[in-house]
């Protein structure tokens, strides 16, 4: 497979529940080998999109291609290499983790060795013989992932896989996703409403805002896009006083704390001029640096409701 090929590609994908539009003209592009973080606030339409990709909702407007196959016309070919975890996995609580997997493996006619393989992959070998009802939420999610991995799909589609997990469970899931991408060569499309969960694992990001793609690209591109929002942070004695002293053409200063002032970054010369002006006015400058917005700020900026 070409390294730059797209495993998921939608064109002008639009969808509504009844008369209510939910998704507008989405052009999603998930590159092979990526961990694509599909981000958006609650209700933005992430789950709806993922369901459409799996053919679980009535046919939408626009097209969905998976592995180059159009879903509406070649459903089996399109979905043949896709594993998914969309809601809480439906498990047989009275059966062990191993037997839960065995039921599905036999139904699908998969080789006997797959069960042990996927149990090892998701780190459940030691708990394989315990009934699923004794599993923690994190273990249930990992067992759900093991079920999705049984046929060894190339692409995993996961809807909020860390939802409801405790911090340990989140760390384990994050590590597992990275292992699946790096060591098993999987491409992973996962949704989340939390940038903090995505930023450590994702290589690519799509940001959905009220059913529209507000951004799509690599994580590095998202950060670059936000450089216009960098600010100069100045540590001084009396930030409120300094705010009044600074010439307005330096950009509106904001008081970040009693001794900390923020000014929208313009240039290196502006930074030098800021320091000079404060010192000339008799104010101490203990530190002055340019602060790039965090990915979290970038995400919040993209998902702020538009001001009418
Ligand atoms: N079966 C349905 N019938 C009618 N409206 C629905 C249905 N499912 C979802 N919606 C609506 O579609 C919109 C998008 O929902 P969706 O679940 O896709 O959002 P989301 O981004 O996944 O958010 P969340 O993280 O809260 O699940 C919401 O306004 C939701 O109320």
TrEMBL record:
Q: Would the keyword ATP-binding turn up in this protein's UniProt record? A: yes
* Family of the protein in this entry: Belongs to the ABC transporter superfamily.
Work out whether the entry's keyword set contains Isomerase: no
Single GO MF descriptor: ATP binding
Task: Extract the SMART domains matched here.
Answer: AAA (SM00382)
Q: Which InterPro entries match?
A: AAA+_ATPase, ABC_transporter-like_ATP-bd, ABC_transporter-like_CS, P-loop_NTPase
Q: Which Pfam families match?
A: ABC_tran
> Its domain of life?
Bacteria
Q: Which UniProt keywords apply?
A: ATP-binding, Nucleotide-binding, Transport
Q: Where is the ABC transporter domain?
A: 8-235
PANTHER family named among the record's database cross-references: ABC TRANSPORTER, ATP-BINDING PROTEIN
Q: What is this protein called?
A: ATP-binding cassette domain-containing protein
């Amino acid at each position: 497979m070409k390294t730059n090929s797209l495993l998921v590609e939608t064109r002008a994908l639009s969808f509504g529940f009844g008369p209510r539009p939910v998704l507008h003209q989405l052009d999603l592009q998930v590159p092979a080998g990526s961990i694509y973080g599909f981000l958006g606030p609650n209700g933005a339409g992430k789950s709806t999109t993922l369901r459409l990709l799996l053919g679980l909702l009535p046919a939408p407007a626009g097209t969905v291609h998976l592995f180059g196959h159009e879903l509406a016309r070649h459903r089996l070919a399109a979905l043949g290499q896709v594993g998914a975890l969309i809601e809480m996995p439906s498990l047989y609580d009275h059966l062990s983790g191993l037997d839960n997997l065995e039921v599905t493996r036999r139904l699908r006619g998969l080789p006997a060795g797959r069960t042990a393989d996927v149990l090892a992959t998701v780190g459940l070998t030691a708990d394989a013989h315990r009934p699923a009802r004794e599993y923690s939420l994190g273990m249930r999610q990992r067992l759900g992932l093991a079920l999705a991995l049984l046929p060894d799909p190339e692409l995993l589609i996961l809807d909020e896989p860390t939802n409801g997990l405790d911090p340990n469970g989140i760390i384990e899931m994050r590590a597992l996703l990275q292992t699946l991408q790096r060591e098993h060569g999987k491409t992973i499309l996962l949704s989340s409403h939390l940038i903090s969960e995505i930023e450590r694992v994702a290589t690519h990001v799509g940001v959905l805002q009220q059913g529209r793609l507000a951004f799509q690209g690599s994580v590095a591109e998202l950060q670059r896009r936000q450089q216009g929002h960098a600010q100069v942070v100045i540590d001084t004695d009396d930030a409120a006083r300094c705010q009044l002293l600074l010439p307005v053409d330096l950009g509106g200063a904001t008081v970040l704390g009693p001794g900390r002032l923020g000014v929208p970054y313009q240039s290196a010369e502006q930074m030098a001029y800021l320091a000079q002006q404060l010192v000339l006015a008799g104010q101490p400058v203990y530190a002055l640096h340019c602060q790039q917005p965090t990915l979290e700020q970038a995400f919040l900026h993209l998902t702020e409701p538009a001001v009418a």
